Amino acid sequence: MVPMDPQAVLEGRVPGRPTAGLIIALTVSTLCALGVLGLYGWFGGGMGFVAALLLAILPIPLLISLVLTLDRVEPEPPRTLALAFMWGAGVAVLGALVLNTAGLIYVTVPVFGEAEGHFVSATVGAPLIEETLKGAVLFLLLWLRRTEIDGFADGIIYAAMVGLGFAMMENVTYYMRAFDEGGADQLTAVFVLRGVIAPFSHPLFTSMLGLGVAWAATHRNGRVAAPLVGLIAAMALHALWNGATTFGLGGLAVVYAVDFVLVLVLIAIVFVERRGTLQRIGRYLPMYEPTGLVTPQDVRMLVRMSSRRAARRWAREVGGQGAARAMDDYQLAATELALVHKRAERGTADPVWLAERRDALLSLMAVARQAFLRAPKPLPEGPPWAPGGGPSGFRRSEEAPGDVPDVPGP
């Protein structure tokens, strides 16, 4: 029997190497990013380019970690996250560089003149072009991998990854210009402004489209209108940001305040949706008690973040990293199972796919639990979420799944 690939089951993909389409998209995006860096180095070069590149990359690991912190209940596939980031850093940046330059030379400056042409390009042309190019990968996911987008949090996460990739490459040009014009002092000031104070501007803009795409992926109505509204909102925020400098410090203060409030709203959306997902686990997982894979005590463990963390710690104490991974697989499969019911509830997926997805997740839960139960010497008091000898699927030594209940149809 071929061993189960837990990651493939959780991601809803065929086990094995990435698909040809993903490999091609990642390759093209990477080549585009390298091409952009080559252009920067050719026209700028020297210490300014090196310093700018290092400063642009420096905060990225921390920023990505902060974004992925919001994605703990149902993490997105690393391969798809990498594609989103590289698309923003490669395809979107190169396309924007070509189209923005062409628009400035052949449209805005000839029509409006030098000064007004640059303003129109910054406040109209750049938002239209850049948000469309960044958002293209979100539309691609909606078209080809709709089932990977389970809610608003997923749309925000993918949009943030695209925006971080784009911002990283764009910052190289700003840092190079600052170094050329004012040396290390001005470079430091621009880095603090763009890399420390406002590093999430591009992720914020594109998150508006992420919300629209997430709505289209999880609802039967508004599948065309929601992404379009999100794209327009992304362009409007981008235009407001680019045009704020014309209103002096007051304009900048207003824009920073608006963006700060919107970031808080997006974080609130993620936490509200997380709570809803955990509530769905409590609503739907009890129907699987006849399979032996869950008990009421196990469900109570699954519906609280603190209990899930405690369960993983306990698993690690019982059986080391292997048991901890098995517990993590069990928890993630249970979460995905609740999201299967969410799609069934809303009628947004094919019933055959729903049944196959449900069965695969139940199988993973069974395999993960058995892998855990084969770990050496469980603790005498048993799972902490089932004290006093209370029933738990992680207390019994053997348990075979029973009949699987039907998933409600659309």
UniProtKB/TrEMBL annotation:
Residues 377-386 have a biased composition (Pro residues). The keyword Membrane applies. Keywords: Membrane, Transmembrane, Transmembrane helix. It comes from the Bacteria. GO terms for molecular function: peptidase activity. The chain crosses the membrane at residues 20-43, 49-70, 82-107, 119-144, 156-176, 196-217, 224-241, 247-272. Pfam families: PrsW-protease. Residues 376-410 are annotated as: Disordered. The keyword Membrane applies. This is RsiW-degrading membrane proteinase PrsW (M82 family). It comes from Thermomonospora umbrina. The lineage of its organism: Bacteria, Bacillati, Actinomycetota, Actinomycetes, Streptosporangiales.
